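Milestone 3.1: sequence recovery, worked example.
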C-alpha cells in the first residue's frame, strides 16, 4: 500500500509492492493473483478468527521482528514462517536479538536500536533489489 508520501516521492508507486506493520503485513494475500512483494516490520496478527488466507499469497515476503515484542514473540514469528513455507510461499522472517517492538523507529529512543535497524535496512534493500524490477 502506498501512502500519499510514497506517491509524492515516487510517481508510479504501486500499492502491491511495499507493506509495513501488523495491519498491512498480510495485505499481499488480499491482492491475489497479482504479484507483489511484502515487507513487514513488527507484529503478527494474533486473532485466530482474523487470519488472512495465506494460500492466496502471491508475494515474496520478508519480515523483521523484535525478540522482545509483546505483539509477536519469537514462537509466533516462527509459526508464521512455518505456515508460509508449508504453503510453498517465499518467506524470510527475521528476529533481531535483544530488540523491542518498533526497534527501527528512531523517534522512540527507548526502543530504537541503531545497529539492528542498519542490519534490517540493508536486508530490505537487498530484498527489494532481488525481487523488484528496478
Amino acid at each position: 500500500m502506498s501512502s500519499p508520501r510514497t506517491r509524492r516521492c515516487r510517481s508510479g508507486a504501486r500499492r502491491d509492492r511495499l507493506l509495513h506493520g501488523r495491519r498491512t503485513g498480510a495485505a499481499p494475500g488480499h491482492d491475489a493473483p497479482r504479484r507483489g512483494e511484502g515487507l513487514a516490520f513488527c507484529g503478527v496478527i494474533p486473532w485466530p478468527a482474523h487470519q488472512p488466507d495465506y494460500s492466496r499469497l502471491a508475494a515474496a515476503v520478508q519480515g523483521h521482528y523484535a525478540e522482545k515484542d509483546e505483539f509477536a514473540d519469537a514462537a509466533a514469528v516462527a509459526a508464521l514462517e512455518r505456515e508460509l513455507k508449508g504453503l510453498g510461499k517465499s518467506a524470510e522472517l527475521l528476529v533481531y536479538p535483544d530488540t523491542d517492538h518498533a526497534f527501527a523507529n528512531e523517534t522512540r529512543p527507548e526502543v530504537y536500536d541503531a545497529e539492528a535497524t542498519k542490519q534490517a535496512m540493508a536486508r530490505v534493500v537487498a530484498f527489494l533489489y532481488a525481487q523488484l524490477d528496478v
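The CA atoms of residues 7 and 13 lie 6 Å apart. The first helix runs from residue 4 to 9.
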